[in-house]
Amino acid sequence: MTNPRHNGLRSVADQSEEERGGPGSVLSRQSRDHADLDALMRAHDAETDPDARGRILAELGERALRHAFAEETVLFPAYRRFLAGADDELTAHIEGDHQRVNDALEALQRSDPRSPEHEETVRGAFAVIRHDAHDEEDDLLPRLQRAVGVEELRAIGAAWEVQRRASPTRPHPRVPRRPPGNVLAGIPLAVTDRVQDAVDHALPVGAGRRRRALPVVPALAAVAVLALGRLLTRRRHR
Ligand SMILES: [Fe+2]
Ligand SMILES: [Fe+2]
To answer: In angstroms, rounded to a whole number, what is the distance separating the alpha carbons of residues 122 and 112?
Structure first.
């Protein structure tokens, strides 16, 4: 299949797991997460019961926020370190899309699920999430793959997973999208989100109930980012 970006690189979407560097590579982790997000969006659209749609939307929102946090704290800094420098246009563009999804998720928490505005916000958020996955699978990830080896792709993937598990689970306004601000702001927010998640989990099953948060201490996330930074710096200077 031809890569629509015409950058001469094979989209990660057209590669086997082995070509992506195995199941632990950041390319494979990203692709699996994008597929899961897409499946949740399709499940939402196929559902007619408003409460069930609300539950799917809550799960999708948490998953999208975790995914974006792992990208912004691990993947994009690694990409900029190897390829683009601090003022990279591509990661800045994707970070802008992440902010739009964050804002939409926040608006959805306040809107009436039966209103046309709610549906319009959902449609807008889904379009940005899908566009974002294409930017990464067709452009950012193949460029990273060309620049680094499989060992680095797996090291980035391992740190990415730690951050995904330690991420805040709810949308928050005005959170920095780049390190170190996003890591430092994310740790206390992740703690307060887990308290709220525990409260929600005790509620009867309904639109407000969320799945229990993944069991990782948020402070470990900062340690993982620092360790990855040291590893990548060492490899770059070899
Ligand atoms: Fe993204
Ligand atoms: Fe992504």
So the answer is: 12
Is 157:12 a contact under the CB 8 Å cutoff?
A: no
Q: For residue range 125-175, what is the model confidence (pLDDT) as tens digits? A: 999 999 999 999 999 999 999 999 999 999 999 999 999 998 887 777 767
72 C-alpha to center of ligand 1: Å?
A: 8
DSSP state of 113: T
HSE value, Cβ hemisphere, 13 Å, CA-based, for 233: 6
For residue 191, the CA-to-ligand 2 centroid distance in Å is 23
Distance 204 CA to ligand 1 centre (A): 32
Q: Which of 83, 100, 101 is nearest to 140 (CA)?
A: 83
Q: Which residues of 40-50 are buried (b: 16+ CB within 10 A; e: fewer)?
A: bbeebeeeeee
Domain range annotation of the chain: 21-236
Residue 148 CA, ligand 2 centroid: distance in Å? 19
Q: How many CA atoms lie within 13 A of 190 on its CB side?
A: 27
Q: How far, in Å, from the CA of 189 to the mean position of ligand 1?
A: 20
C-alpha dist (Å) from residue 28 to 14, 23, 25, 81, 190: 12, 6, 5, 21, 25
| Per-residue pLDDT tens over the stretch 202-215 | 554 444 445 554 54
